[in-house]
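Sequence in, structure out. Go.
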Amino acid sequence: MEIEELKKLAQKIIVEMKNQRSPVLPIFSPEDIYGSRPCNEAMDDKVNIAGLREEQRIIEGIGDVFGKLYDDLGLKKALGDSRKDDSWNEILKACVIARIANPLSKYRTASMLEQDYGVRIALEKIYRMMDRLIEREREIRHTITASTLELFGGKLDVAFFDVTTLFFESVNEDELRNFGFNKDCKLKETQVVLALVTTSDGLPVTYRLFPGNIYEGHTLISMVEEIRKVHEVGNVLLVADRAMFNRENLDAMDKVGINYIVASRLKSLSKEMKKLILESEDFAPAVVEDEFHWVKEFDYRQRRLVVSYSSKRAKKDASDRTRLIERLLKKVKDGKVKIKDVIPNYGTKKYLALRDKDAIVDESKIEQDALWDGLLGVISNTDELTPTQILSRYRGLWSIEESFRISKHDLRMRPIYHWTPDRISGHILICFIAYTLVRQAMYRVSRQHEPMSFEKIRNELLHAQASILIDTSTGKKYILPSKTSHVQKKLYRIFGLKRSEVPRPMT
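Output:
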């Protein structure tokens, strides 16, 4: 033991003497440069401090964490499992991670990959990869569905369904791009309709693209059939917004035995039904998701119509109406409103009464609208849930709304700059894979740490960087990692990774 201690002391003295003669850069440890640690055997005996230059600064965090997650989900061989497919798989993986880090056009993505990640991919290879990608769309979507179902033991009890629109910077139409009602008020551009199914945590189950002119209420049944038959998930309780509320959808789901909770358009019900709801006085007190409500159940065409009143919702409804009326009044001239001035805004048109080519503000319509402040109705055919449970399940629909926000805003799924159906589908699939990784990351973080927004996760990992230093006298390169923050360490640990802050030679 004494001999070993003497050897360690001698080595320490040698390191100190070498460092005194030729001090290492402060960012390096003298023991790493002059010592004999096994993990640093490839380091030079001496580094020329004066000749060190930063050649490039790269982002490591996004690639480390989301790259690991990409492989864990079984997407490593998405484009094939032969050696000749490896390069295509790596290009797909790079494009997906790039979209998570900083969503840009494919042209700018190629430049960003080289500048920020040290990955050089020719633009034409990205396009060729997209052409190959669409051939494997079904398998990739099935892999993603399986990864989600695996988290729930292969069973899916509740699914949330909604649709959105994705517009193009184009007016050209084809079998997929078309004009239709756009939720972003992009009236002059063509669009496609994206239908998405998620779990209550926003984890993706599946998606489908529809032509831009399809009525969104007609997208539901085909998606339900795919969920049940293709993925064999059994009887799913489907939760959807009021856009799916029509007799055709409800009858079709009843026919095939689908349990559902769908928001009702209370103001579109029959006069008798509306009168019954508004004049009812025996609403019962209830607590829905820690919020006080008044609740009553009605019979509606042999289905359950659960209506609730919330003072919080009433205040919001009144505030929204006030905002719309103020906007409308700004367009009033001589007591009239020109129809063309309100065509893009459906919300304000409902308060108008037509008078030849113009319209006037109808005070009676405003008064009628106010009667429904705070009221929400949902239709269901299930007998297994109480009215309060039905309302609670419906309120979980916020998760899919958040999913669209992440896809359209954080991942910039739209506008779309591709023009052929296959390239459009390829772009959406890349975005869907990126969204899958984002949701999986958020899910794992919430289960092992605490809920964290995608924006925070991305920001932390974007700051996990490294400098590539070059010794101009020898041409040798070294990697100098940035300091790892407390949150970054937690993120790495959650995904089974450990980030070293020790400088190392670049292999």
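Check: The first strand starts at residue 52 and ends at 59. The longest helix spans residues 421-448.
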